[in-house]
Amino acid sequence: MADRPIRVLLVDDHQVVRRGLRTFLEVQDDIEVVGEAADGAEGVARAEELRPDVVLMDVKMPGTDGIEALKRLRELANPTRVLIVTSFTEQRTVVPALRAGACGYVYKDIDPDALAGAIRSVHAGHVLLQPEVAGALLAQDDAPGGTGRGTTLTEREREVLGLIADGRSNREIARALVLSEKTVKTHVSNILMKLDLADRTQAALWAVRHGLTD
After folding, report:
1. What is the Cα–Cα distance from 105 to 17, expressed in whole angstroms?
2. Are 99 and 78 in contact (CB under 8 A)?
3. SS3 51
């Protein structure tokens, strides 16, 4: 499996954008474009059919937009990781996308090599935010797990949360902290409950927002 290319689905309503992304990504030895979709509804259907590793998704599309598509993708039996690739920089777009389950958010003017790196990073389990996006996340006050809730975390839970943000699995966290996997699972459950978060992706974003990562 380690030698298998990262399977990518392109979801954007502009054909020229999809063509450009495909042209660049197809020269990457470790990335394979397995399909395209012109809107969110088609993207969800194609994701269910193709089961890609990573979906590159625009936010603003006619019909079903990227935010709604993100919500539907999370309901699939095997939800894929989604990297938002868009030209929209407003906080009112960034925050809902991250809350809906996006694992990364980059802009369409990103350097091509950086985009390939972003795909690899998201596929590896990391949360990927360009500096401007991280700034928008820091600026908003009403995100899940407001600052005050973090004070209820124990020091050990903060360590676990930082490793979640680094993309570590429970097994890897257990090894790093010399704990049992069962204990790590308990810490993760407590973190999600205390911060009122739905999943590990939101927990990782919370950690990024509050400076628990390197």
Report:
1. 17
2. no
3. coil
Question: Which residues, listed in sequence order, are joined to residue 83 by a DSSP beta bridge?
Answer: 56, 104
Instruction: Please give the structure tokens belonging to residue 71.
Output: 């919500």
pLDDT in tens, the chain (214 residues): 457 899 999 999 999 999 999 999 999 999 999 999 999 999 999 999 999 999 999 998 988 999 999 989 988 877 789 999 988 766 667 778 877 888 888 888 888 899 999 999 899 888 777 666 665 555 554 444 444 555 578 889 989 998 988 888 889 999 999 999 999 999 998 888 888 887 887 788 788 777 776 6
Surface-to-core class of residue 158, CB atoms within 10 Å of its CB (0-12 exposed, 13-18 middle, 19+ buried): middle
The pTM score is: 0.70
